[in-house]
Hints:
With 478 residues, the chain is of the alpha/beta class. The chain has two domains: 4-232, Vaccinia Virus protein VP39 (Rossmann fold), CATH 3.40.50.150; 243-476, Alpha-Beta Complex (Spore Coat Polysaccharide Biosynthesis Protein SpsA, Chain A). It is 38% helix and 19% strand. Helix 13 runs parallel beside helix 16 and helix 14 (403-411) packs across helix 15. The chain starts with a helix and ends with a helix.
Amino acid sequence: MVDLTRFTAEAADDRKTRQKLWSQVSGETQSWGGYYHARLSRIYQGIIPAGARVLEIGCGRGDLLDAVRPALGLGVDFSPEVIAQARRSHPGLQFVVSDAHDLVLEPQTFDYVILSDLVNDVWDVQAVLEGLHRYCAPRTRVVINFQSTLWSGPLRLAQRLGVATPTLPQNWLTPHDLANLLEISGFEPLRGWHEVLVPLPVPWVSDFANRYLAKIWPFSVLDLAGMMVARPVGQRPSHPPTVSVVVAARNESGHIEELIARIPDMGGGTEIIFVEGNSTDDTYAVIARAIAGHPERRCRLLRQPGKGKGDAVRAGFAAATGDILMILDADITVPPEDLPRFYALMADGRAEFVNGVRLVYPMNEQAMRLANLVANKAFSWIFSWLLGQPIRDTLCGTKVLWRDDYQRIAAGRAYFGDFDPFGDFDLLFGAARLNLKIMDVPIRYRARRYGETNISRWRHGWLLLRMVAFAARRLKFV
């Protein structure tokens, strides 16, 4: 029989030893640590938007917590000396003395939980992670950085030279180890990547290497910091969500009756919002007649205020009342009967953003030209690399997300700018920045049967390349 008392005593002794060490070094500042932690602060600022509710476990002197500019920031550390310094340095934040293994805080939840360089230093990583659930809501994101085992030797040397903070024996975790620990603790890893190739302040070298080379293989293999973002699993809505299906319609009068007949009723109720885009045919009148002829359906008609599908979608989303927002192209190239597949992933909590994929099943012969197909596959690869989550088809018109998340994306739209006429990338970039769980649903793509496409292959293709470059600066090379 295993003697659990012995393990408890060992853990208590380890805690006292580490508390003593961190209390002793709390007033020291190393040149390595100063540059390294400044770089971490910049990385976290790109992950956590200002004004969030943030909990940091193992907060040290509170500098990282302060850097993300939280509306409510609560820092926890097991060293009373360290917490005393944090309170003096950051009086606008809250700090609590507590051990990460038996965390006891006032009942509340946070938007983000930070574990920065903590999992390398705790006795039981799984116990620490499991204890976080009390402070997590369904949309909470846990952000972790941990040090690579490849740096164990260089860090020991730096500690002997006095340019790095001394440590006790560490947990050297691989990304697989941490992902596994998150999963068995009730969290789902959303994305992981590497940062900080050069942790020393070398003029002209450090900033370039850490902003660009650190994100590119094979240099990324040598990075000091591993990053991972995860979400709690097993939390579902308490009631069947309602749905708003937004249909942007320009010169689509031949599809309106069929759309109303084929869009299914989902969840707690479905409304259909048609946004007519200044058509040159009688689309607006046809929609109005179709709505009048189907009083059993909850339908609304808006006239688009600007130009482009993105503008139409935003107008529809602004008027929507459903819990879940869906985009469906009026040309019926995506079958409306597939929408319940998207709904199911959202309603049971498996996804927070669902993207249609046209590139899995065979298409009708006239559905997509070869050049468009090749370009779509290329852009899907590029955007998967940029966003850190697999995106198989960036330009499929069917996208689904929670209305609350859309409002957060809209509030932060200035971060990326406002030059996306499609609306697809505005949503994808925003979802990636919020670290939403993105999932793909393969659909059978049909050829258009009425009218002509509103997309210009070359003009819009050039615009896509510009958006790729812009997103790289904002999402990848931070």
